[in-house]
Amino acid sequence: MMNKQFLSVRGLTNNQLSASGKPKMCRKCGSPATKEILFDVGNDIAVIERYCDPCIQTVLANSRSSA
Length: 67
Prior knowledge:
The chain is α+β, with helices and mostly antiparallel strands and 67 residues long. Helices cover 19% and strands 33% of the residues.
């Protein structure tokens, strides 16, 4: 399992698409994503995960409690 350290959150606009031209979707539930979270995973590597508003609350709460 990867050790992720929360770095920041940024909002997405409604019309942002992925590189493939598809809408960005929530990693947890598959709904349209509204926020991106940046995590540091070590060795100068960062991971971006996308979430909808309801799911991001859970993810942020979990990342703060594990810090």
